[in-house]
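Give me the 3D structure for Centrosomal protein of 41 kDa-like isoform X2.
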Amino acid sequence: MPIRQRYRQKSKYKEALQTVKLGFQVIDKEIYDLPMDKKIPENPKYKHVRSTIDTGASVTKYIEKMEELKRNYNFRKDEIFKRMKVSTFVQLLVQIADLDTVNEDVSKAGDTDLQFDRPDTADQEVANIQKNGAGDSAREASEGETSRSRLEQVVNGLGEIDLETPKPSNKSLPMMGNLCPYLLLDVRERDAYDECHIITAQSYPTAMLARSVNYETKEMLAFKNQQGKIIVLYDDDERLCHRAATTLVQRGYDNLFMLSGGLKVAYKMFPEGLITGTVPQAVLDEVAQPPKSAKSKAQSTARVPATQDSFTPELIDKLCGYLDTSVTDRSTGSRLSTSASSKSGRASSISSASSISTLGRKPFK
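Predicted structure for Centrosomal protein of 41 kDa-like isoform X2 (365 residues):
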């Protein structure tokens, strides 16, 4: 057989073999590439939406948690200071506000007992009524005014439940005044502090630490190593605060804490009630939740002056709402069992505090 003919036969055989291979690949692709196996393209509009079904612990959740820790926190091996979570600091604020409310209620109750002291026996009360006829008529007049006001309230659609329900007060809480157990210091520059800061924080730029003398404020000296008092430092994202906390600990501050995550994590966990002023754009970009509408986008970019210098009952109630969602751990177990255990664990404290708390908030441990 000629060489050319053999070569032609081999080339035809190779072409036939390649055709058979391609046919098998097409068949395999049609069999195994099912429609359900195709990857659904991800829509960036709904990228932040998470599943509401808690399937328990998994490697994916653990990896996401570790990535979040690396993204939000800057842990180092040579840290000589203590850390405090934002949720722990907010729990401290809630406890102080509840204590202020209880002290105010006790003082009011004491004043009413002194002002409206009634006699021990009915005979003494009858004798007082006979002596003071004018007081009796004044009492009847006041009762008449009360009945007329009740009638007007019923006409206007107000009932006894609406009248007995305590209205939230917007007045500032004293936060224990001079007995406040914490001192919050903002170590950023003064301009950044004036634009946005955590409520009740004081400005203490890191440039103060460059001084050899007079680098401490009178508040820092009052809180330094005092029993039952702590000093908390924070910044935007732990870049400045790490060096400031290390320097102060080296200079003898043993009761010093750094707020983990800084302003970024604080705004992420408590977007309302904790921060006053306009949040920096860098923090807003890292929090990364797309606005739902053009109205919410306009509100996020609007500048708000940092004029709130103290907490109010309304702000504390907002913090309590966000605290309920941040304290619960959804990494393991089901959400139903976790919420049930948290409710049962706080049942005794809630029942004991319900008689003295007028705001109806749940105490936190």
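The chain has a mean pLDDT of 74. Let me know if you want a second pass.
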